[in-house]
Design goal:
This protein is 49% helix and 21% strand. It is an alpha+beta fold. A hairpin with a 2-residue loop joins strand 2 and strand 3. Helix 1 crosses helix 5 and helix 1 runs antiparallel to helix 6.
């Protein structure tokens, strides 16, 4: 049976059982209440007739009241009160009234009248008489001297009593049927809603899809984390657990407990998926993330799936490729520079300016010696030194003067910053300056990097066009740039790296742009 049929059948069964149980209990309770009410009414009728003057006088022997008249009045009262019989009897059980006049003068039938005649009690009993099995109420009759002179019996046939109960219950049948109809309609609507919520899948199909996806997820090299709409972890695969150090009991905890970033919460709040976002998980571990919103059939946000790739391996390959690229660039720049200088030397020789040739060669040698000394002797981080050298070569080729301060020195890195991150900061700042200055020989870039008071200081200054005023307040936002093309990521990355290292970054625009960065060497 399909899920929809199971739901409808289950709800109908629950309705039938619950409504049926309520109906049976109501019938039993109503029968009891109705019986108590009828018993009370019959006792009241019996007690009323037991205190009637005419009845007492007739039983005392006052023959001035004809028996037919007495029986006629009693019959009128019987019909009015809707009982089966009202019988007046003396202490011997002889009837003085009865619906069947032929029974008058005969002894009361049933045997349950002895109690009232012998003890004078009021009570209810059941007995079989001339009219059939009936429920009877007995009340004693006393004269003025408080002597019992007879009793009154008021009765109702059992079948009439049951008819009274059934008549009352019939009024509930439309309500019961309406309840069943509404319940069945609700079951159908519920089953339809549930099927729609699970995209029309059967439980077996859901189980198969779940197992298939679990297998696929566990065999993917990328890390995958599923979050609910509050940003708490609901699922993760083995690679995600390895990178983020997650365990099974971490399910249900906020994702912010395991990363430095809260980008997942921002994506959930915005309702927009994002791709290619670099997140720092912990010192030395960065991941590239893709955030995909999960929506229900009503387009409501149910949660978020984060897929990410550990950049460690990617960066190892990138470093190799970048190193080759930097080497090729440096060789190309040096070749271009070497050819220009050879042409200059050749021209000076042809002009027989031999002293100028010697001076020119000495300047070149001294310049190369200075930059090599600064970079190799004072910048101890190999990656950063290679980056600065490649930028220097690029500036030389572009006829831009890159000045590296003699007091620059890098012995060790800040505690929570990798060489790749420091290189990203320095490289982006120099690249921005290269784009900003002129390449006609007047462009100049000044750079200094050093330690001071447990802070790493980075200063980059150029004499370029400066940052346009309209983007100065949003320069660190992603996508903000004064250049053409798909740019605007550099300063966003720089600001993010510095914020993660708990550093500060400032800039001022005055005949160019000057950047001042301070990063703590240690953090508590």
């Amino acid at each position: 049976m399909k899920l929809k049929g199971k739901i409808i059948s289950l709800v109908i069964a629950i309705l039938v059982i619950s409504i049926g149980s309520i109906t049976i209990l109501s019938f039993i309770e109503m029968k009891k209440l109705l019986r108590d009410q009828i018993d009370k009414n019959m006792l009241n009728i019996a007690d009323s007739f037991a205190s009637t003057y005419e009845v007492k006088e007739y039983l005392k022997g006052n023959k001035a009241i004809p028996i037919d008249l007495l029986n006629s009045e009693i019959e009128k009262a019987r019909i009015k009160t809707n009982v089966e019989f009202i019988v007046i009897m003396d202490m011997n059980g002889i009837r003085y009234s009865h619906p069947d006049k032929s029974k008058i003068g005969e002894r009361f039938a049933g045997g349950d009248e002895d109690r009232v005649l012998s003890t004078g009690e009021q009570y209810i009993s059941t007995g079989s008489g001339t009219l059939g099995t009936s429920v009877r109420a007995f009340a004693p009759i006393y004269d003025d001297s408080n002597k019992q002179i007879g009793s009154v019996a008021v009765g109702m046939l059992y079948n009439k009593f049951d008819n009274e109960v059934y008549t009352k219950m019939y009024k509930f049948i439309p309500i019961i049927l309406m309840g069943l109809i509404l319940g069945i309609s609700g079951a159908i609507a519920l089953s339809y809603n549930i099927k729609k919520s699970i995209f029309g899948l059967e439980p077996e199909e859901i189980a198969l899809a779940l197992k298939q996806k679990e297998t696929v997820i566990e065999n993917i090299k990328e890390g995958i984390i599923a979050l609910d709409n509050n940003g708490c972890i609901t699922l993760f695969n083995g690679q995600a657990g390895k990178v983020l150090h997650l365990k099974e009991n971490d399910i249900g905890k906020p994702i912010t407990d395991f990363t430095y970033e809260s980008m997942a919460l921002k994506v959930l709040n915005s309702g927009k998926s994002m791709t290619n976002i670099e997140i720092k998980v912990r010192p030395g571990v960065n991941v590239m993330c893709k955030y995909s919103i999960i929506r229900g059939f009503k387009k409501q946000i149910l949660g978020l799936v984060v897929t990410f790739e550990d950049l460690s391996e990617v960066r190892k390959m990138a470093e190799e490729l970048t190193g080759i690229k930097k080497m090729a660039w440096s060789l190309r720049a040096q070749n271009h520079e070497f050819m220009n200088k050879l042409h200059t030397i050749s021209g000076l020789i042809q002009l027989e300016e031999y002293d100028e040739v010697i001076k020119f060669v000495n300047v070149i040698v001294e310049s190369k010696k200075n930059i090599t000394t600064i970079i190799s002797d004072k910048i101890k981080n190999v990656s950063l030194a290679a980056l600065i050298l490649s930028k220097y070569s690029k500036c030389e080729e572009a006829r831009i003067n890159l000045i590296i301060d003699d007091d620059s020195r890098v012995i060790k890195l800040p505690q929570y910053m990798t060489s790749e991150e420091l290189g990203s900061v320095v490289g982006n700042l120099i690249e921005n300056s290269i784009d900003a200055v002129k390449n006609d020989g007047t462009g100049e870039i000044y750079m200094k990097i050093f330690e001071e008071d447990d802070q790493m200081k980075i200063m980059v200054k150029d004499n370029g066009c400066g940052i346009p005023e309209n983007i100065r307040n949003s320069i660190y936002n992603i996508g903000i740039t004064s250049k053409e093309g798909e740019r605007g990521f550099g300063m966003y990355i720089v600001k993010k790296i510095i914020d993660e290292a708990k550093g500060t970054i400032k800039f001022k625009v005055d005949n160019g742009t000057e950047w001042d960065i301070s990063i703590p060497m240690r953090r508590s």
